[in-house]
Amino acid sequence: MTYPVHTVPRSERIARWILAVSFFLLAVVVAGMLIKVPYAVEKPGPATNTLGTLSDGTELVVVKGAKHYPTDGALYFTTVRVLGGPDRHITGWEWVMGHLDKTSRVLPESEVFPPDTSAKEIEQMNAAQMQGSQKNSIAVGMRSTGVKVPQVNLVASIGKGYPAAGKLKLEDEIVAVDGTKTSTVADVVDGISDRKVGDEVTVEVRRKGAERDVTMTTTDLGGGRAGIGIGVEAKYDYPFEVRIDAGDVGGPSAGMMFALAVRDRLTPGAMTGGKQIAGTGTIDDSGEVGPIGGIAQKMVGAHESGATWFLAPKSNCNDVVGHVPDGLQVVPVDDFSQASTTVESIAKGKTAGFPTCQDVVKAAP
Predict the structure, then answer these.
(1) Residue of 61, 80, 237, 255 with fewest CB within 10 Å of its CB?
(2) Looking at the 3D structure of the chain, how many domains does it have?
(3) Reported confidence tier of residue 116, pLDDT bands at 50, 70, 90
């Protein structure tokens, strides 16, 4: 006895195959959306002209009580947009897309955010850093024009369990270290750390009008760096008001560009000569420019904003090389004096002989 053989039509087999693949792809997409990973994605953020206005029409830098001048061109501060965080892990798909996007960088959350901190705490920390950055920027910008800006250096924090605990107090004014007078925060930090761990250091402080010497034994702050566990903050006596409004942006990395904007507003003529210049870098009360994170993404943001020049901290040169967008010229700088001279040279078209990050990297030991 024979039975008829039933075969599945070819069109039906194809339809079944397509359906199976579709279900598989759907499962992959859903899984990618639901799975959370402890990583963060750094992407280029917007660039904002410190010489311009915010979206609501408010001027970013406002001078009151002193002569100031109109200007032209752009001094952009640059930003990084970060996906992820302690309260919001990125999805598997965001992790994949971050790796596929050449302008983005994927990092473990622990390398981007301090451990055991909430999103709210990070926001507060960034706001405090921005505030401190603006204070330094105003002082440095004013001083670059010859304006006298007195300052005192105060103990702003004391680490629990460190040598300074119980010996120094918040708001103590640090006058000298080992008998050497200190003018800047950098003087204080360098004076204390310029010794071996375990050596003694004597800090002269002014408390309630009376001066006293406090001797402590230094401890290791990490990496063999000697310290006593304090944070020091400059308190300035500005002779007139300068207000900086950066909107919702936080962190200290716009300090150098803010200081340049303050100088530009306080001096006649356009410092940029109408050129489009961007940059990044922290600034301390002595005018030293410090390193920042996400510089590759900031250069992309600067280029997209229309900038043709970019000022980068010299200490970031290893991260600059190989990541500069076409059409953007990068000049490394060490301090505010070099940054302002560079901007003024760009304005005059005298750019021959500028140092490059390639030169810096090659010259490094």
Answers:
(1) 237
(2) 2
(3) confident
